[in-house]
Amino acid sequence: MRKEKKMDNLFLYLLKVSVATMLFYLSYILFLNKDTFYRRNRFFLAGILLLSFTLPVMRLSAVFGSRQATGLAKPVYNIFVSGASIESAVANRMLSTDLNSILLWIYISISALLLLRLLTSVVRTFMIIRKGRLIERSFPMVVISDLDHPPFSFFPYVVIPVKTHESGDYSEVIAHEKAHVKQGHTFDLIFTELLIAVLWFNPFIWLIKRAMVLNHEYLADNSLVKSSFNMKNYQYKLLNITQGLTIVTSAHNFSSLIKNRIIMLNKKPTSNYAALKSIIILPVAAILFMMFSFRPGSGQISNGYQGNLFSKSSESEILTFLAMNTGYPEQAKNNSDTGSVFVVIKMAKGGIVKDCKAFTDVKEVNAPLLNEIVIVGYKPAAAMKYAADVKTAGTEHAALKSEALRVANKLSEVKVPEWNDKDMEFAIPVKFELK
After folding, report:
1. What is the architecture, at CATH level 2, of domain 312-434?
2. In the list 66, 105, 332, 433, which could disulfide-bond 337, CB 3.0-4.6 Å?
3. Residue range 145-163: mean pLDDT, rounded
4. 237-251 b/e (C-beta count within 10 Å ≥ 16 → b)
5. 399, 331 in Cβ contact below 8 A?
6. DSSP 8-state assignment for residue 270
7. What is the DSSP pairing of strand 141-145 with strand 157-161?
8. Residue 348: exposure state from Cβ atoms within 10 A (0-12, 13-18, ≥19)
9. How far is the C-alpha of 348 from the C-alpha of 125, rounded, in Å?
10. The whole model's pTM is what?
């Protein structure tokens, strides 16, 4: 059960990250994409990736203090099924678990393939560099390659194909790729590729990578705009440079995204007032933070108590024991009796059950509540009762109380460290459902 819950939590976390990347990316496209503040856009794109992965795990308690109503009882996923149809229920549960496992293995397999693809690309890039001739040893280092590919940069290296080098007209190419190296753009690329391996199913993570690569090109082109290079000749160079076979997926290729780059080269600088649009990230982050922090309170049971009596593992031991040993009474099934019973247990030092009482109203419970367990039974085919009988049975829950008390009195069999050194009193909600 714990494994299944962990898988559910993982899928929920990835869904939240996907929602965050979608909203942040749309904000970028609507407000910042066409601005010439390329450095700001670079930090914005990297920042929204970090925020997308961190916001879903943040909680308001981390900001406003540690007060948290831990006396709330939340349904656990340990559901014990009692009745003639137990085999069918177990089969359905196994099917659900198997489906989750299959989805998890598919997710892990594709992530592993993408990581292998990244590793292969990095190794292949270093092989190209190693086979080339180093003509400049100072940073950034320039390598001449005999292979057919566009000029590219990768960490401290600028790699130029021999055809471009032999033409003698490659100063703009060198300057452009050196700008990539000096600004450390390869780190952004590798970082984004690693996140893609985690969030590969989300189309927006791929779009963010494309936006980041494009902005890197704008940054490198802009460094040439500020120099003495002839921009008209540089644009012709972009159009005439060989496209080749792009085999370096983890590096910046000089000939990538030509049309967009030429448009931005001829774009007038954005007004300084447009920099105020950067604050769009604040309301978007705030909305996501509020969405991910608050949890609905419906369906929860509280009696005003706060604080944790048991560790998670100890509480799990107690609840698992109760769930696995509690059956749905035949009399209650015949009477269509359903509802919640609150069992208050007093434990003496050493884990000895002193007293057990059962209530049908949580307001009568004056002890801290643990998480709720659910007992599911199946109605007998021949069960026929009048509405008045059902109402009376549902109100009193005599058979349900008796069964819950029977199992609660056996809790001495459970060994947890918390009740070894002191007397304790706590309550456990037990919900009985009929299918």
Report:
1. 2-Layer Sandwich (3.30)
2. 332
3. 89
4. bbeebeebeebbebb
5. yes
6. P
7. parallel
8. middle
9. 69
10. 0.64
183: closest CA among 204, 151, 165, 158? 158
CA–CA separation, 283 and 281 (whole Å): 6
CA–CA separation, 265 vs 275, rounded Å? 19
CA distance 190 to 86: 51
User: Residue 48 is encoded by which pair of tokens?
Assistant: 């929204």
Which among 289, 266, 382, 295 has a CA at the least distance from the CA of 70? 295
Q: How far is CA 125 from CA 101, 119, 162, 189, 248, in A?
A: 36, 10, 16, 14, 6
Listed residue (211, 219, 139) closest to 185, CA to CA: 219
DSSP 150: -
Q: What angle do CA 221, 270, 174 make, to 5 degrees?
A: 5
CA distance 321 to 306: 24
Tens-place pLDDT, residues 249-288: 667 666 567 778 888 888 888 888 877 888 888 899 888 8
Among 214, 263, 258, smallest CA distance to 238 is for 258
Cβ atoms of 363 and 353 closer than 8 Å:
no
Asked if 145 contacts 159 with a C-beta cutoff of 8 angstroms, the reply is yes
Residue 369 is given by DSSP the state: B
| Nearest of 434, 335, 433, 340 to residue 388 by alpha carbon | 335
Give the β-pairing of 424-434 and 372-377: parallel
